[in-house]
Amino acid sequence: MRSKVASLLLVVLMVLASFAPALAQSEPFCGDLDAADCDLLTAATENMKEVASYQAAASYSAMLAGIPGLPLAEAAVDVTVDGAFTYNDDALAAAAQLAEVQGQEDVANLMLESPELFVDFYNGWAFDMVIDVTMSDELAAALSADAGIEIPSALSVPLILKDGILYVDVTEVAPLINGMQGMEGWLGFEFGRVIEAAAEQGMFEQAAASMDPAAMASAGAADPATMAALMGLQATLSDPKAFEKFMSIERVADDEIDGAAVAVFVTKLDLLAFLSSPEFAELVKGLAASGALGADAPSAADLDQALGMLGMMGPMLFQGLTSESTTAVSIDEPNYIISQSTLFSWDLTSLLQMAAMSGAVPADQLPSGASMVEVSTTVVNSDIGGEQMIEAPADAQIIPAEAMMQPAQ
Question: Which domains does the chain have, with CATH numbers?
């Protein structure tokens, strides 16, 4: 029973962690905002769909601390992305349709009915960006020992997409990839032509067919009932509107970003209401039915009992949990989303203490310090509508589409 309780607690963490990005949805949630504030948020969201050029600086951070079984006292990874982006008219039109996709079934339907959308989007999109990844020396050493290669604590990867060709400066990543050691400089991959050929040859239709639960089961992934349950769970999690009844939004104090006055909206999730809801119970049962918990998954009776206990103990267990999204909108017209951030943070101290009392976690494995998991994202947009000069590197070695489409030997 200990492992079953531990599995349930893991499921709770997995499900709740999905809500930070879910709070930042493409269609604005207005809740109890007054009409003027809702109009402002809606106008900014709609205007962003028409933006054909801009710059963006994004940061993504993940941190685990004091987790039983984790070989490190703390593990943290930070990723930053800084670049310029442009879209032509075809790419903007394709992006508008792709933004409506809310699950695997919608993706499959688009592949069947409109494979050209994927071609238009990729070939009409251009960017010049740099991705930087940093982690502690201790985490890099642990990952290196596990992977059998030296993984650096800092890594920088410049990327350029221009006219359907993805250019990558492989200087820092080459040592991590078999067959690329010693390489440096720019490589260009003709992915645009590969996608075009895939659409012409019916590969999108084949991919869509393979996403059917029966087809996935016949390929050995799982039985049809399990695959259907897993796909249903994925579809539920991908639809933020399914959780609006548990959400609230308010306009807090206005701010200023890069000299622009912005209205700031904070959206939060009422976690206690969600944890005691039928929707949460269905998510957990769907995960169990999908086989995600393995052979030792709790039975239906065990789940019902554990979920009932979870509802009663929720105020104690989840008092240190935060899941929210913050959106900053330019007040002056035209209104745009200047920044958007999400935060999922959970102080696990009380939860682990309860787990130790139940026997789910051995008492000698409890950490002496704080226990928490935190995932945060921030994206700041600038120079919206400005001209972005994106040029292909002149010295790149091009990997032709034909080479990438050859079957592996």
Answer: 2-102+116-201+239-401 (2.50.20.20)
